[in-house]
Write a structure and sequence with these properties.
Elements: E1 17-18, E2 35-37, E3 43-44, H1 46-58, E4 64-65, E5 74-75, H2 77-83, H3 88-106, E6 109-111, E7 118-120, E8 128-130, H4 132-138, E9 143-145, H5 170-177, E10 180-181, E11 192-193, E12 195-197, E13 204-206, E14 214-216, E15 223-225, H6 232-235
Antiparallel strand pairs: 1-2, 2-3, 4-5, 6-7, 8-9, 10-11, 12-13, 14-15
Keywords: Metal-binding, Repeat, Transferase, Ubl conjugation pathway, Zinc, Zinc-finger
Domain RING-type: 20-249
Protein name: Probable E3 ubiquitin-protein ligase ARI8
């Protein structure tokens, strides 16, 4: 166990310890801590819980929900703070990020570079956003880039960048330039990027375990194969967890899927 790895104290009578697998260890890191039970009934270690909740924050969430399929139980922050054994530094990060994400979640807007008023984006797959105030003031359509926050240049609709200098889609850049991953338990898999966009919701995920090729997306909670980019149940129709995919390694992604939630 790493000296930096957090672990439960078996003498802590406020915890309910269980003899089960760590159900939040989606990257199969196999933490050494005893397992304790969350209010939803699933077993965790402080490290796996911290990693899962940090991932939710990185994906823009302001609330903590169990990552197991068919479990929509929301954990209060006080429970997460206790069960994850958050350090003072982690608590500061969690609480400040929760506040920022909550504000962004309820006020998903950006400042128009023309009139400086807040504008909401209706189409998440198009970077070009029309400001109605500027359009009325100028007597012609005024659109700006959601990414670089400059007046729009170039053709549209576009989801990667506009023609302004310095307009860079950082997620696409990461997909294009990330190093390759070498799976320790799967032979003959070459050329697989270490970062993929979830084929369901588009969240960028980095695979670091090097053991199993399947991964559960923290945002949409859908499991997919990091190698062929098929959903796990589809991949397993012609393959297995620890053997190469029948369709080989999917090429680097050049676009990011948009999550169409049924809300």
């Amino acid at each position: 166990m790493s000296s930096m790895e957090k672990s439960y104290n078996l003498h802590d009578q406020t915890l309910r310890f269980v003899d089960r697998e760590d159900e939040m260890d989606f990257l199969y890191e196999e933490f050494a801590s005893p397992r304790a039970e969350m209010s939803c009934g699933h077993a965790v270690t402080p490290m796996s819980l911290t990693n899962w909740c940090r991932r939710l924050l990185e994906e823009g969430k302001s609330k903590f929900v169990c990552g197991q399929p068919n479990c929509n139980k929301e954990w209060p922050y006080v429970e997460v703070r206790k069960m994850a054994l958050l350090t003072p530094e982690e608590r500061e990060y969690f609480e400040s990020t929760m506040a920022k994400n909550a504000a962004r979640e309820y006020f998903n807007s950006k400042t128009c570079p023309g009139c400086k008023f807040s504008v909401r984006r209706k189409n998440e797959s198009n970077l070009s956003v029309r400001c109605q105030i500027c359009t009325e003031r100028k007597g012609k359509a005024y659109e700006f880039c959601w990414q670089c926050l400059k007046e729009w240049k170039g053709p549209q609709p576009r989801s990667d960048r506009c023609d302004n200098d310095g307009c860079i889609n950082e997620p696409l850049k990461a997909l294009k330039t990330c190093p390759e991953i070498v799976f320790e338990s799967i032979k003959d898999v070459r050329g697989c990027p270490s970062i993929r966009a979830c084929p369901t919701c588009g969240s960028l995920l980095e695979h670091t375990s090097k053991k199993c090729k399947n991964l559960v997306c923290p945002r949409c909670r859908v499991e997919f194969c990091f190698v062929c980019l098929k959903l796990t149940f589809q991949c397993l129709r012609t393959s297995r967890h620890y053997i190469p995919c029948s369709d080989g390694v999917a090429p680097r992604q050049t676009s990011i899927p948009v999550w169409h939630q049924n809300t």
